[in-house]
Amino acid sequence: MKMIMRWFGEENDTVTLQQIRQVPNIDGVAGALHHIPAGEAWPMDEILALKKSINDAGLQFEVVESVNVSDAIKLGSPERDAHIENYKLTISRLAEAGVKVICYNFMPVFDWTRSSLDAPLPDGSQTMEYNESIIAEIKPDTIADYMLEKAETYSLPGWEPERMAKIVDLFSKFSVITEEKLRENLKYFLDAIMPVCEETGVAMAIHPDDPPWSVFGLPRIFKNQGDMEAIMALNENRMNGITLCTGCLGSHPDNDIPAMIESAVSKGKLHFVHIRNIRITKPRYFREVSHFSGDGSLDMFAILKALYQSGFDGYARPDHGRMIWGEQARPGYGLYDRALGIAYINGIWEALEKG
Length: 355
Fold this sequence. Notes:
Elements: E1 2-6, H1 17-21, E2 28-31, H2 44-56, E3 60-65, H3 71-75, H4 80-96, E4 101-104, E5 116-120, E6 126-131, H5 132-135, H6 140-151, H7 161-164, H8 167-174, H9 179-200, E7 203-206, H10 225-234, E8 240-245, H11 246-250, H12 257-266, E9 270-275, E10 277-282, E11 285-289, H13 300-310, E12 315-318, H14 336-354
Parallel strand pairs: 1-2, 1-12, 2-3, 3-4, 4-7, 7-8, 8-9, 9-12
Antiparallel strand pairs: 5-6, 6-11, 10-11
Helix pairs in contact: 4-9, 10-12, 12-13, 13-14
């Protein structure tokens, strides 16, 4: 298992590559060109500049998170073929730069949803929270305004201001898209790009819906193991794979995370894992907590044991962390709590290796 951290770039991240390099057992970072709009091809010179900055810090650049899929592709609108051609070109360019895995999602409108980005915890830290009773009482444009306000100067992938300005129009367009149609559009996308992925050796790893249920009536197609199996079957190519996010899927207590890991690894389709813990206080109400099992609702030892025993040898990263020790950073992506998470994961992994 190769441990990495997500990094948003020199201009948009309080955490530096030098700090990441000092975290024990770190191989590299997951990066991206966040300023390139979905549907456009990534320029080769900018890809190589990003790679150089990462490599110069002694880190590898083998995972991209994310090359966003445009709304046109998700909707199946006439522009999708042109956007897919740009996506294929981006895959080829990333492969030339040494990238092995692209994490992406197929969630309509919002890539992820929270009711609070700075909910207080009893220990004085702050965290992200989802409360269905709050979400149910507000309008989509209201939560978009809240997210952008709380993000302050940081960009939030999936909540780009230029997209949120069109939120009413997006909801109108997606109102006629069923889960079946969204799945068909995903298959169309996968069938188009898989030949390029096979040729270049770049694996696509779809991220689960966050949270794993419908929000604001939008369709969701990666909520549980049944959905995961269906997505893997849409295209049998080994490059059509999964990003398994433990906190995402674990926020629904019916999801058996170790079983999902074992299934995806057995098919050779688990390419990337996001490791985090959450505490469920009631149905559809959870808070993100430290990685320690005792702080949350997930058995992190059982999850890591499933990864180890199944022979997982892909990429993993600590997912969202709390804001601790007075750190001011992008919500979920400070240095301190994610570094603690890696130390915790390292300890369990070494214990598993040594029996």
